[in-house]
Amino acid sequence: MRRTLVRDALASREYGKEMTVAGWVRTRRDSKAGMSFVELNDGSCMGNLQVLAPASLANYASEVTRLHPGASIKVTGQLVESPASGQAVELQATTLTVLGFCDPLEYPLGKSRISFERLREVAHLRARTNTFGAVARVRNALAFATHRFFQERDFYYFNAPIITASDCEGAGEMFQVTTLDLEKPPRDPDSGKIDFKQDFFARPANLTVSGQLEAETHACALGNVYTFGPTFRAENSNTTRHLAEFWMIEPEIAFADLNDDADLAEDYLRFLFQEVLARCPEDLKFFDQRVEKGLLANLEALAKAEFTRISYTEAIALLEKAADKFEFKPYWGADLQSEHERYLAEELFHGPVIVMNYPKEIKAFYMRLNDDQKTVAAMDVLLPTVGEIIGGSQREERLDVLEARIRDIGMTPEDYWWYCDLRRFGTVPHAGFGLGFERMVRFCTGMGNIRDVIPFPRTPQSAEF
Ligand code: 4AD
Ligand code: MG
Protein backbone atom coordinates (compact mmCIF):
# COMPACT_ATOMS: atom_id res chain seq x y z
CA MET A 1 0.00 0.00 0.00
CA ARG A 2 1.23 3.49 -0.82
CA ARG A 3 2.21 5.69 2.09
CA THR A 4 -0.04 8.70 2.61
CA LEU A 5 1.69 11.89 3.74
CA VAL A 6 0.52 13.23 7.09
CA ARG A 7 -0.14 16.54 5.35
CA ASP A 8 -2.58 14.86 2.96
CA ALA A 9 -4.19 12.79 5.71
CA LEU A 10 -4.81 15.94 7.76
CA ALA A 11 -6.38 17.70 4.79
CA SER A 12 -8.51 14.71 3.79
CA ARG A 13 -12.18 14.40 4.78
CA GLU A 14 -12.63 10.91 3.33
CA TYR A 15 -13.87 9.40 6.57
CA GLY A 16 -13.69 5.62 6.61
CA LYS A 17 -10.86 5.50 4.07
CA GLU A 18 -8.05 3.08 4.81
CA MET A 19 -4.54 4.49 4.62
CA THR A 20 -0.97 3.83 5.70
CA VAL A 21 1.19 6.53 7.25
CA ALA A 22 4.73 6.41 8.59
CA GLY A 23 6.79 8.79 10.67
CA TRP A 24 8.25 9.64 14.04
CA VAL A 25 6.39 9.76 17.32
CA ARG A 26 6.12 13.20 18.88
CA THR A 27 4.13 12.19 21.96
CA ARG A 28 2.20 9.26 23.37
CA ARG A 29 -0.65 9.53 25.83
CA ASP A 30 -2.45 6.53 27.37
CA SER A 31 -6.08 6.80 28.32
CA LYS A 32 -7.74 5.07 31.19
CA ALA A 33 -10.10 3.40 28.76
CA GLY A 34 -7.21 1.23 27.59
CA MET A 35 -5.89 2.83 24.42
CA SER A 36 -3.12 5.18 23.41
CA PHE A 37 -3.00 8.39 21.43
CA VAL A 38 0.16 8.82 19.42
CA GLU A 39 1.03 12.13 17.72
CA LEU A 40 2.83 11.31 14.50
CA ASN A 41 4.97 13.65 12.37
CA ASP A 42 6.51 12.72 9.03
CA GLY A 43 8.07 16.04 8.00
CA SER A 44 5.48 16.73 5.30
CA CYS A 45 4.00 19.57 7.35
CA MET A 46 4.13 21.23 10.73
CA GLY A 47 1.10 19.35 12.04
CA ASN A 48 0.94 15.92 13.64
CA LEU A 49 -1.58 13.23 12.86
CA GLN A 50 -3.21 11.75 15.91
CA VAL A 51 -3.14 7.96 15.79
CA LEU A 52 -5.54 6.10 18.00
CA ALA A 53 -4.01 2.76 19.03
CA PRO A 54 -6.60 0.48 20.69
CA ALA A 55 -5.57 -2.10 23.29
CA SER A 56 -6.88 -4.77 20.89
CA LEU A 57 -3.74 -4.37 18.74
CA ALA A 58 -1.69 -7.58 18.98
CA ASN A 59 1.45 -5.69 19.98
CA TYR A 60 -0.30 -3.15 22.22
CA ALA A 61 1.17 -4.19 25.57
CA SER A 62 4.48 -5.38 24.20
CA GLU A 63 5.29 -2.48 21.89
CA VAL A 64 2.82 0.41 21.70
CA THR A 65 3.18 1.17 25.39
CA ARG A 66 6.94 1.40 24.88
CA LEU A 67 6.73 4.12 22.24
CA HIS A 68 8.50 7.34 23.16
CA PRO A 69 9.25 10.57 21.28
CA GLY A 70 11.57 9.86 18.36
CA ALA A 71 10.45 6.27 17.73
CA SER A 72 9.56 5.42 14.14
CA ILE A 73 6.37 3.61 13.24
CA LYS A 74 4.19 2.61 10.32
CA VAL A 75 0.45 2.60 10.84
CA THR A 76 -2.40 1.32 8.74
CA GLY A 77 -5.88 2.28 9.75
CA GLN A 78 -9.07 4.13 9.03
CA LEU A 79 -9.39 7.86 8.83
CA VAL A 80 -12.17 9.03 11.12
CA GLU A 81 -13.65 12.34 12.15
CA SER A 82 -11.98 13.35 15.38
CA PRO A 83 -14.21 13.92 18.39
CA ALA A 84 -11.49 16.04 19.98
CA SER A 85 -11.33 19.76 19.38
CA GLY A 86 -8.30 21.22 17.58
CA GLN A 87 -8.11 18.53 14.91
CA ALA A 88 -10.50 17.42 12.20
CA VAL A 89 -9.33 13.86 11.67
CA GLU A 90 -7.51 11.03 13.37
CA LEU A 91 -6.34 7.60 12.28
CA GLN A 92 -7.78 4.54 13.99
CA ALA A 93 -4.98 1.99 13.79
CA THR A 94 -5.67 -1.57 12.67
CA THR A 95 -1.96 -2.43 12.57
CA LEU A 96 0.94 -0.51 14.05
CA THR A 97 4.47 -1.63 13.17
CA VAL A 98 7.37 -0.33 15.18
CA LEU A 99 10.29 0.39 12.83
CA GLY A 100 12.66 1.67 15.51
CA PHE A 101 12.35 2.30 19.23
CA CYS A 102 13.87 5.39 20.80
CA ASP A 103 15.32 5.46 24.30
CA PRO A 104 13.85 8.48 26.10
CA LEU A 105 16.84 8.68 28.45
CA GLU A 106 19.27 9.09 25.59
CA TYR A 107 17.26 10.93 22.94
CA PRO A 108 18.35 14.59 22.98
CA LEU A 109 15.00 15.92 21.73
CA GLY A 110 12.84 15.24 24.72
CA LYS A 111 9.79 17.18 25.67
CA SER A 112 11.45 20.29 27.04
CA ARG A 113 12.34 23.21 24.81
CA ILE A 114 15.96 23.13 23.62
CA SER A 115 17.94 26.22 22.64
CA PHE A 116 19.03 26.70 19.03
CA GLU A 117 22.66 26.66 20.24
CA ARG A 118 22.22 23.23 21.80
CA LEU A 119 20.43 21.99 18.68
CA ARG A 120 23.48 22.91 16.57
CA GLU A 121 25.35 20.24 18.52
CA VAL A 122 22.82 17.66 17.39
CA ALA A 123 22.45 18.98 13.86
CA HIS A 124 21.83 15.44 12.61
CA LEU A 125 18.54 15.33 14.53
CA ARG A 126 17.36 18.93 14.59
CA ALA A 127 15.25 18.66 11.41
CA ARG A 128 12.83 16.65 13.56
CA THR A 129 11.87 19.72 15.56
CA ASN A 130 9.05 22.02 14.47
CA THR A 131 11.38 24.95 13.87
CA PHE A 132 14.01 23.15 11.84
CA GLY A 133 11.47 21.13 9.88
CA ALA A 134 9.86 24.42 8.87
CA VAL A 135 13.24 25.96 7.97
CA ALA A 136 13.96 22.97 5.72
CA ARG A 137 10.62 23.29 3.95
CA VAL A 138 11.06 27.05 3.42
CA ARG A 139 14.59 26.46 2.13
CA ASN A 140 13.25 23.90 -0.31
CA ALA A 141 10.49 26.24 -1.50
CA LEU A 142 13.01 29.04 -2.12
CA ALA A 143 15.28 26.68 -4.08
CA PHE A 144 12.41 25.49 -6.23
CA ALA A 145 11.20 29.07 -6.76
CA THR A 146 14.71 30.04 -7.88
CA HIS A 147 14.80 27.41 -10.61
CA ARG A 148 11.26 28.29 -11.63
CA PHE A 149 12.00 31.99 -11.88
CA PHE A 150 15.05 31.57 -14.09
CA GLN A 151 13.74 28.65 -16.16
CA GLU A 152 10.53 30.52 -16.97
CA ARG A 153 12.65 33.42 -18.21
CA ASP A 154 14.84 31.29 -20.53
CA PHE A 155 17.96 31.22 -18.38
CA TYR A 156 20.18 28.12 -18.58
CA TYR A 157 21.26 26.46 -15.35
CA PHE A 158 25.06 26.48 -15.33
CA ASN A 159 27.26 24.37 -13.01
CA ALA A 160 30.38 26.24 -11.97
CA PRO A 161 33.41 24.27 -10.77
CA ILE A 162 34.03 23.99 -7.05
CA ILE A 163 37.81 23.56 -7.38
CA THR A 164 39.37 26.45 -9.24
CA ALA A 165 42.55 28.49 -9.50
CA SER A 166 40.81 31.86 -9.69
CA ASP A 167 39.98 34.24 -6.88
CA CYS A 168 36.85 35.90 -8.17
CA GLU A 169 36.51 38.49 -5.45
CA GLY A 170 40.26 39.17 -5.31
CA ALA A 171 40.02 39.21 -1.53
CA GLY A 172 42.30 36.24 -0.87
CA GLU A 173 39.66 34.55 1.29
CA MET A 174 40.14 31.10 -0.20
CA PHE A 175 40.43 27.62 1.20
CA GLN A 176 43.40 25.88 -0.38
CA VAL A 177 42.91 22.46 -1.92
CA THR A 178 45.86 20.17 -1.55
CA THR A 179 47.10 16.83 -2.83
CA LEU A 180 50.47 17.42 -1.20
CA ASP A 181 52.12 14.46 0.46
CA LEU A 182 52.43 16.05 3.86
CA GLU A 183 55.04 13.48 4.86
CA LYS A 184 57.30 14.58 2.01
CA PRO A 185 56.02 17.99 0.87
CA PRO A 186 57.77 19.79 -1.98
CA ARG A 187 60.04 22.49 -0.60
CA ASP A 188 61.46 25.68 -1.95
CA PRO A 189 65.15 24.87 -2.60
CA ASP A 190 66.34 28.18 -1.17
CA SER A 191 64.21 28.72 1.90
CA GLY A 192 63.32 25.09 2.60
CA LYS A 193 59.70 26.11 3.20
CA ILE A 194 56.78 23.99 1.96
CA ASP A 195 55.82 25.11 -1.53
CA PHE A 196 52.05 25.47 -1.25
CA LYS A 197 51.88 26.84 -4.78
CA GLN A 198 52.09 23.22 -5.94
CA ASP A 199 49.03 22.16 -4.04
CA PHE A 200 46.68 20.52 -6.48
CA PHE A 201 48.53 18.02 -8.67
CA ALA A 202 51.37 20.53 -8.88
CA ARG A 203 49.12 23.51 -9.47
CA PRO A 204 47.59 26.03 -7.11
CA ALA A 205 43.93 25.41 -6.41
CA ASN A 206 41.25 26.55 -4.01
CA LEU A 207 37.57 26.15 -3.31
CA THR A 208 35.55 28.63 -5.29
CA VAL A 209 34.42 31.87 -3.65
CA SER A 210 31.98 32.52 -6.50
CA GLY A 211 30.98 30.89 -9.78
CA GLN A 212 30.71 34.21 -11.53
CA LEU A 213 33.83 34.26 -13.71
CA GLU A 214 33.00 30.84 -15.11
CA ALA A 215 29.33 31.78 -15.51
CA GLU A 216 30.45 34.71 -17.66
CA THR A 217 31.94 32.23 -20.16
CA HIS A 218 28.50 30.75 -20.72
CA ALA A 219 26.64 34.05 -20.69
CA CYS A 220 29.00 35.06 -23.49
CA ALA A 221 27.84 32.06 -25.51
CA LEU A 222 24.32 31.13 -24.44
CA GLY A 223 22.88 34.48 -23.41
CA ASN A 224 21.40 34.28 -19.93
CA VAL A 225 22.58 31.71 -17.37
CA TYR A 226 22.43 31.19 -13.62
CA THR A 227 24.41 29.17 -11.12
CA PHE A 228 23.07 27.71 -7.90
CA GLY A 229 25.75 26.00 -5.89
CA PRO A 230 28.00 26.01 -2.87
CA THR A 231 30.69 28.66 -2.44
CA PHE A 232 33.37 29.03 0.23
CA ARG A 233 34.95 31.91 2.09
CA ALA A 234 37.88 31.49 4.44
CA GLU A 235 37.03 34.65 6.34
CA ASN A 236 37.17 34.37 10.09
CA SER A 237 33.81 36.08 10.62
CA ASN A 238 31.82 35.06 13.63
CA THR A 239 28.62 36.88 12.84
CA THR A 240 25.01 35.89 12.46
CA ARG A 241 25.22 36.48 8.69
CA HIS A 242 28.46 34.78 7.64
CA LEU A 243 29.21 31.15 6.89
CA ALA A 244 32.41 29.55 5.62
CA GLU A 245 30.30 27.46 3.22
CA PHE A 246 27.17 28.99 1.76
CA TRP A 247 25.05 28.61 -1.35
CA MET A 248 24.87 31.32 -3.93
CA ILE A 249 22.62 32.00 -6.90
CA GLU A 250 24.44 33.90 -9.60
CA PRO A 251 22.60 34.96 -12.75
CA GLU A 252 24.70 36.37 -15.55
CA ILE A 253 22.97 38.25 -18.36
CA ALA A 254 24.37 39.13 -21.77
CA PHE A 255 23.72 42.38 -23.68
CA ALA A 256 22.76 44.03 -20.39
CA ASP A 257 23.85 46.94 -18.22
CA LEU A 258 23.60 47.77 -14.52
CA ASN A 259 19.98 48.91 -14.75
CA ASP A 260 18.96 45.65 -16.41
CA ASP A 261 20.79 43.86 -13.59
CA ALA A 262 18.93 45.83 -10.92
CA ASP A 263 15.60 45.16 -12.68
CA LEU A 264 16.32 41.43 -12.65
CA ALA A 265 17.31 41.49 -8.97
CA GLU A 266 14.05 43.25 -8.05
CA ASP A 267 11.90 40.85 -10.06
CA TYR A 268 13.69 37.83 -8.62
CA LEU A 269 13.37 39.00 -5.00
CA ARG A 270 9.68 39.85 -5.35
CA PHE A 271 9.10 36.45 -6.95
CA LEU A 272 10.81 34.65 -4.07
CA PHE A 273 8.66 36.45 -1.52
CA GLN A 274 5.48 35.70 -3.47
CA GLU A 275 6.37 32.04 -3.86
CA VAL A 276 7.32 31.43 -0.25
CA LEU A 277 4.05 33.08 0.86
CA ALA A 278 2.06 30.93 -1.54
CA ARG A 279 3.82 27.62 -0.79
CA CYS A 280 4.64 27.77 2.91
CA PRO A 281 1.71 29.56 4.62
CA GLU A 282 1.62 27.23 7.62
CA ASP A 283 5.37 27.38 8.26
CA LEU A 284 5.46 31.16 7.87
CA LYS A 285 2.60 31.51 10.32
CA PHE A 286 4.63 29.50 12.82
CA PHE A 287 7.68 31.76 12.34
CA ASP A 288 5.47 34.84 12.60
CA GLN A 289 4.04 33.66 15.93
CA ARG A 290 7.11 32.04 17.49
CA VAL A 291 10.22 33.56 15.98
CA GLU A 292 9.66 37.05 14.58
CA LYS A 293 6.47 39.00 15.16
CA GLY A 294 5.35 40.84 12.03
CA LEU A 295 7.24 38.56 9.65
CA LEU A 296 4.20 37.74 7.51
CA ALA A 297 3.20 41.37 7.08
CA ASN A 298 6.79 42.22 6.09
CA LEU A 299 6.93 39.48 3.49
CA GLU A 300 3.57 40.50 2.07
CA ALA A 301 4.74 44.10 1.74
CA LEU A 302 8.01 42.99 0.11
CA ALA A 303 6.22 40.80 -2.41
CA LYS A 304 4.86 44.04 -3.93
CA ALA A 305 7.58 46.45 -2.89
CA GLU A 306 9.13 49.11 -5.07
CA PHE A 307 12.86 49.25 -4.47
CA THR A 308 14.61 52.55 -3.83
CA ARG A 309 17.66 53.08 -6.05
CA ILE A 310 20.35 55.50 -4.93
CA SER A 311 23.98 56.04 -5.78
CA TYR A 312 26.73 55.25 -3.31
CA THR A 313 27.59 58.96 -3.28
CA GLU A 314 23.99 59.83 -2.31
CA ALA A 315 23.97 57.10 0.31
CA ILE A 316 27.14 58.48 1.92
CA ALA A 317 25.64 61.97 2.02
CA LEU A 318 22.54 60.62 3.79
CA LEU A 319 24.61 58.58 6.22
CA GLU A 320 26.88 61.52 7.02
CA LYS A 321 23.81 63.49 8.10
CA ALA A 322 23.10 60.76 10.67
CA ALA A 323 26.74 60.13 11.56
CA ASP A 324 26.17 60.28 15.32
CA LYS A 325 24.05 57.12 15.11
CA PHE A 326 26.96 54.98 13.97
CA GLU A 327 29.90 53.32 15.57
CA PHE A 328 31.80 53.52 12.29
CA LYS A 329 31.66 57.04 10.78
CA PRO A 330 30.70 56.92 7.11
CA TYR A 331 32.80 58.78 4.55
CA TRP A 332 33.19 58.71 0.77
CA GLY A 333 35.60 55.91 -0.09
CA ALA A 334 34.76 53.59 2.81
CA ASP A 335 32.65 50.48 2.38
CA LEU A 336 29.18 50.52 3.92
CA GLN A 337 29.03 48.73 7.24
CA SER A 338 26.14 46.55 8.28
CA GLU A 339 24.86 49.32 10.59
CA HIS A 340 24.79 51.74 7.62
CA GLU A 341 23.00 49.28 5.37
CA ARG A 342 20.38 48.62 7.97
CA TYR A 343 19.86 52.30 8.66
CA LEU A 344 19.22 52.95 4.97
CA ALA A 345 16.77 50.06 4.53
CA GLU A 346 15.08 50.16 7.94
CA GLU A 347 14.96 53.76 9.05
CA LEU A 348 15.34 55.92 5.96
CA PHE A 349 13.56 54.07 3.19
CA HIS A 350 11.52 51.45 5.10
CA GLY A 351 12.11 48.83 2.45
CA PRO A 352 14.63 47.41 0.00
CA VAL A 353 17.33 49.74 -1.28
CA ILE A 354 19.70 49.27 -4.22
CA VAL A 355 22.93 51.22 -3.80
CA MET A 356 24.79 51.72 -7.08
CA ASN A 357 28.17 52.93 -8.36
CA TYR A 358 30.65 52.35 -5.56
CA PRO A 359 34.25 53.65 -5.44
CA LYS A 360 36.43 51.32 -7.50
CA GLU A 361 38.94 50.85 -4.66
CA ILE A 362 36.48 48.94 -2.49
CA LYS A 363 35.05 46.69 -5.22
CA ALA A 364 36.28 43.73 -7.27
CA PHE A 365 38.45 44.01 -10.38
CA TYR A 366 35.83 42.79 -12.85
CA MET A 367 33.35 45.62 -12.29
CA ARG A 368 32.94 48.10 -15.13
CA LEU A 369 34.75 51.40 -14.64
CA ASN A 370 32.38 54.37 -14.93
CA ASP A 371 33.17 57.48 -17.00
CA ASP A 372 34.11 59.40 -13.85
CA GLN A 373 37.08 56.98 -13.55
CA LYS A 374 36.41 56.88 -9.79
CA THR A 375 33.44 54.58 -9.43
CA VAL A 376 32.42 51.21 -10.86
CA ALA A 377 29.01 49.98 -12.06
CA ALA A 378 28.39 47.93 -8.90
CA MET A 379 25.20 47.39 -6.95
CA ASP A 380 24.32 46.01 -3.55
CA VAL A 381 20.72 45.20 -2.67
CA LEU A 382 19.94 45.90 0.98
CA LEU A 383 17.01 44.51 2.95
CA PRO A 384 15.80 45.57 6.37
CA THR A 385 17.28 43.43 9.21
CA VAL A 386 19.79 41.49 7.06
CA GLY A 387 21.50 44.31 5.17
CA GLU A 388 23.28 43.13 2.01
CA ILE A 389 21.44 40.24 0.37
CA ILE A 390 22.74 40.70 -3.17
CA GLY A 391 26.02 41.97 -4.62
CA GLY A 392 26.34 42.49 -8.35
CA SER A 393 27.69 44.60 -11.16
CA GLN A 394 27.99 45.31 -14.83
CA ARG A 395 31.18 43.56 -15.93
CA GLU A 396 34.17 45.30 -17.52
CA GLU A 397 33.90 44.28 -21.17
CA ARG A 398 36.83 46.42 -22.48
CA LEU A 399 40.02 44.34 -22.62
CA ASP A 400 42.48 47.18 -22.03
CA VAL A 401 40.55 48.57 -19.07
CA LEU A 402 40.16 45.10 -17.54
CA GLU A 403 43.86 44.28 -17.86
CA ALA A 404 44.79 47.58 -16.26
CA ARG A 405 42.40 46.90 -13.35
CA ILE A 406 43.82 43.41 -12.83
CA ARG A 407 47.36 44.85 -12.70
CA ASP A 408 46.22 47.68 -10.41
CA ILE A 409 45.24 45.25 -7.68
CA GLY A 410 48.47 43.29 -7.98
CA MET A 411 47.25 40.29 -9.97
CA THR A 412 48.49 39.21 -13.42
CA PRO A 413 46.24 39.28 -16.50
CA GLU A 414 47.98 36.11 -17.74
CA ASP A 415 46.50 34.18 -14.82
CA TYR A 416 43.07 35.24 -16.08
CA TRP A 417 43.87 34.69 -19.77
CA TRP A 418 40.65 32.78 -20.42
CA TYR A 419 38.60 35.48 -18.72
CA CYS A 420 40.34 38.12 -20.82
CA ASP A 421 39.70 36.04 -23.96
CA LEU A 422 35.97 36.70 -23.53
CA ARG A 423 36.86 40.38 -24.13
CA ARG A 424 39.26 39.54 -26.95
CA PHE A 425 36.86 37.45 -28.97
CA GLY A 426 33.54 39.19 -29.54
CA THR A 427 33.08 41.04 -26.29
CA VAL A 428 29.59 42.11 -25.20
CA PRO A 429 28.26 44.25 -22.37
CA HIS A 430 27.01 41.94 -19.63
CA ALA A 431 26.08 42.00 -15.98
CA GLY A 432 25.11 39.76 -13.10
CA PHE A 433 24.72 39.38 -9.38
CA GLY A 434 24.99 36.92 -6.52
CA LEU A 435 22.30 36.27 -3.93
CA GLY A 436 23.38 34.65 -0.67
CA PHE A 437 20.85 31.83 -0.34
CA GLU A 438 21.14 31.43 3.43
CA ARG A 439 20.67 35.16 3.97
CA MET A 440 17.42 34.81 2.04
CA VAL A 441 16.28 31.76 4.01
CA ARG A 442 17.14 33.59 7.20
CA PHE A 443 15.16 36.62 6.12
CA CYS A 444 12.07 34.59 5.16
CA THR A 445 12.03 32.62 8.41
CA GLY A 446 13.05 35.41 10.78
CA MET A 447 15.70 33.08 12.25
CA GLY A 448 18.28 35.13 14.11
CA ASN A 449 21.39 33.20 13.12
CA ILE A 450 22.46 32.10 9.65
CA ARG A 451 23.82 28.86 11.17
CA ASP A 452 20.26 27.78 11.77
CA VAL A 453 19.11 27.91 8.14
CA ILE A 454 21.68 25.55 6.56
CA PRO A 455 21.55 21.85 7.52
CA PHE A 456 25.21 21.55 8.55
CA PRO A 457 26.77 24.96 9.14
CA ARG A 458 30.48 25.41 8.50
CA THR A 459 31.93 28.23 10.55
CA PRO A 460 35.25 28.79 12.28
CA GLN A 461 33.84 26.85 15.26
CA SER A 462 31.85 24.09 13.72
CA ALA A 463 32.38 21.50 11.06
CA GLU A 464 32.04 18.30 13.06
CA PHE A 465 29.28 16.69 11.04
O1 4AD B 1 28.98 40.32 -2.63
P1 4AD B 1 29.57 39.00 -2.96
O2 4AD B 1 30.91 38.69 -2.40
O3 4AD B 1 29.58 38.93 -4.55
C1 4AD B 1 30.10 37.95 -5.32
O4 4AD B 1 30.59 36.93 -4.92
C2 4AD B 1 29.89 38.20 -6.79
N1 4AD B 1 30.83 37.36 -7.53
C3 4AD B 1 28.47 37.91 -7.16
C4 4AD B 1 28.17 38.13 -8.62
O5 4AD B 1 28.15 39.24 -9.08
N2 4AD B 1 27.91 37.07 -9.35
O6 4AD B 1 28.59 37.84 -2.49
C5 4AD B 1 27.25 37.81 -2.98
C6 4AD B 1 26.28 37.55 -1.85
C7 4AD B 1 26.28 38.61 -0.77
O7 4AD B 1 25.47 39.70 -1.13
C8 4AD B 1 25.74 37.85 0.42
O8 4AD B 1 24.32 37.76 0.35
C9 4AD B 1 26.30 36.46 0.19
O9 4AD B 1 26.64 36.35 -1.18
N3 4AD B 1 27.49 36.21 1.01
C10 4AD B 1 27.51 35.40 2.10
N4 4AD B 1 26.55 34.68 2.70
C11 4AD B 1 26.87 33.95 3.79
N5 4AD B 1 28.12 33.90 4.30
C12 4AD B 1 29.14 34.61 3.74
N6 4AD B 1 30.37 34.52 4.24
C13 4AD B 1 28.85 35.40 2.58
N7 4AD B 1 29.58 36.20 1.78
C14 4AD B 1 28.74 36.67 0.84
MG1 MG C 1 29.28 41.99 -1.45
Automatic annotation (TrEMBL):
NCBIfam families in the record, alphabetically?
A: asnS, PRK03932.1
User: Is Ribosomal protein given among the entry's keywords?
Assistant: no
What are the entry keywords? Answer: Aminoacyl-tRNA synthetase, ATP-binding, Cytoplasm, Ligase, Nucleotide-binding, Protein biosynthesis
Specify the superkingdom: Bacteria
Q: Does this UniProt record's set of keywords contain ATP-binding?
A: yes
Reactions catalysed, semicolon-separated, are: tRNA(Asn) + L-asparagine + ATP = L-asparaginyl-tRNA(Asn) + AMP + diphosphate + H(+)
The protein's name in its UniProt record: Asparagine--tRNA ligase
Broad EC category: ligase
Task: Give the GO cellular component terms, alphabetically.
Answer: cytoplasm
Q: What is its EC number?
A: 6.1.1.22
Q: Which PANTHER family does the annotation name?
A: ASPARAGINE--TRNA LIGASE, MITOCHONDRIAL-RELATED, ASPARTYL/LYSYL-TRNA SYNTHETASE
Q: How does it assemble?
A: Homodimer.
The Aminoacyl-transfer RNA synthetases class-II family profile domain covers 137-455
Give the gene symbol.
Answer: asnS
Principal subcellular localization: cytoplasm
The compartments listed are:
Cytoplasm
Q: What organism does the UniProt record list as the source?
A: Oligosphaera ethanolica
- A Pfam family matched in the record: tRNA-synt_2
Family to which the UniProt record says this protein belongs:
Belongs to the class-II aminoacyl-tRNA synthetase family.
SUPFAM superfamilies under this entry? Class II aaRS and biotin synthetases (SSF55681), Nucleic acid-binding proteins (SSF50249)
GO MF terms listed in the record are:
asparagine-tRNA ligase activity; ATP binding; nucleic acid binding
Return one Gene Ontology term, BP aspect: asparaginyl-tRNA aminoacylation
